[in-house]
Design a protein that fits this description.
The chain is mostly helical and 123 residues long. It has one domain. It is built from five helices and no strands. Helix 1 runs parallel beside helix 4, helix 2 crosses helix 4 and helix 2 packs across helix 5. The radius of gyration is 14 Å and the shape is globular.
Amino acid sequence: MKWIAGAFLLAVLMINPVLAGDLTVEDFDVNTTKALVDLCSAPVDDPLYPKAIHFCHGYLVGAYHYYAVSSINSFVCPPEERPARNTIVEQFVQWAVDHPEYWEEVPVETEFRFLSELWPCPE
């Protein structure tokens, strides 16, 4: 299972070499979308890689679960059969790279911009 995550991240980094870089402890403050994307696309050889990947997944999944249980008016409607978590993280990273105008925004807002485009609710 670890090799799958490693292969996934290697593929993301090959697609997005601009994201590859040394992580800092400040990245874990996730004050910006760029910081979260840096954590989610951490190079496997970075000393903070294990913490970065776990933090990335925890942040994204935690925010979604909070939304799912507390939202009165849904604006994200995922399919019944959802893709694997790594797939969604990869899609989020690519979407964020394609939308640098959101890099300085709060990551949770950017996450839900992405999800509402990926899985909009029918009107």
